[in-house]
Amino acid sequence: MTMKQLRNNGLIIDSHVHLRGELIPPDEYASWCRQYSEALGASYKVALIPFCEKWSYYPNRDEVQQGHEILARYLESYPDLFYGWAYVNPADPDFALQEIERWVATGHFIGIKLWVAKKCSESVVVPILQRAAQLRVPVLQHAWDKSTGQLKDESLSMDVALAAQSVPNCSIIMAHLGGFWQRALKAVSPYRNIHVDCSGGWAHAGAIEKAVTLLGSERVLYGSDAPLRDIPTQMSKVFGANIATSDKRKILSENFLRLTAHARRISPNANH
Ligand SMILES: [Zn+2]
Fold first, then answer.
1. pTM for the predicted model, two decimal places
2. Distance 15 CA to ligand 1 centre (A)
3. Which pLDDT value is given to residue 171?
4. Residues by chain with Cβ below 5 Å of ion ligand 1
5. For 22, what's the count of Cα atoms within 13 Å in the CB-facing half-sphere?
6. Contact status, residue 139 vs residue 179, Cβ threshold 8 Å
7. From CA 144, how far away is CA 146, in angstroms rounded?
8. 228 C-alpha vs ligand 1 centroid, how far in Å?
9. CA 94 to each of CA 27, 124, 127, 160, 202: distance values in angstroms, whole numbers, following the listed order
10. Nearest to 138 by CA among 224, 260, 265
């Protein structure tokens, strides 16, 4: 794909980027956006996931709330470059739903990410998926099929498949192509409400091609997992894939825009 072909589209949205507390201020994320925009000749925007200061897979209410308030300030700083995910703890569904009302139902954030505190196939997660479906926003779900064993409450691709079956009108984005993508993509491909992001991990030859073959290009999203991962390496997965330019455009921004269309329409930020 040439830069000229990309410019026709003009937009790359990195759907999976993490905040790192005080370590990386908003200006630095904005400088990445500008740097990659200039290099690529297309606007590079990022969808940010809040951070909690004391890293835990089981954040308490204060930590979740604080993460959202910090994220809101980042979005205010650069409304033309940043989108935000609500990051809620599925082990505390009452508070998760309160935070979803505060930040997602109001259009401030474009979707919901779930902490690794419950497998997404557990029944406690269902009300969150149902509310996401009502609000017409996507749920970003970490999943990583590992050969070394899972974290206690970490989802496998099979859990994502079960969650998608239990709430078929909820759009779920399985992060990281599910880790061991050769298996994970097959597990989720039958469920039309499952999308995948290609963030994190190595840039394996053939992974994006497999995702497009099994799921269709309209169900694959670009994401980097920065700053845990290096953006150019992650972008090379899509840029270097042996797929049509029209498919790359869908992966690089069009699918994100479609999945978040309702949230962006009701956003108080006119630039979305
Ligand atoms: Zn991540």
1. 0.95
2. 10
3. 98
4. 225
5. 2
6. no
7. 6
8. 8
9. 34, 10, 9, 21, 37
10. 260
In order of 46, 93, 190, the CA distances from 29 in angstroms are 8, 31, 36
Task: Average the pLDDT over 74-101 and give the result.
Answer: 97
Residue ranges of alpha helices (H) inside the chain are 3-9, 26-40, 61-77, 93-103, 126-135, 157-166, 181-188, 207-215, 231-239, 245-249, 255-259, 261-266
Q: Beta strand pairing status for 82-88 and 43-49?
A: parallel
Q: Cis omega (within 30 of 0) on the bond before 190?
A: no
CA of 154 to the centre of ligand 1 (A): 13
> What pLDDT is recorded for position 197?
98
Q: Is residue 83 helix, strand or coil?
A: strand
Whether the Cβ atoms of residue 224 and residue 16 lie closer than 8 Å to each other: yes
Mean pLDDT (the chain, rounded): 93
What's domain 3-266's superfamily in CATH?
Answer: Metal-dependent hydrolases (3.20.20.140)
The per-residue pLDDT for range 139-175, each reduced to its tens digit, is 999 999 988 888 889 999 999 999 999 999 999 999 9
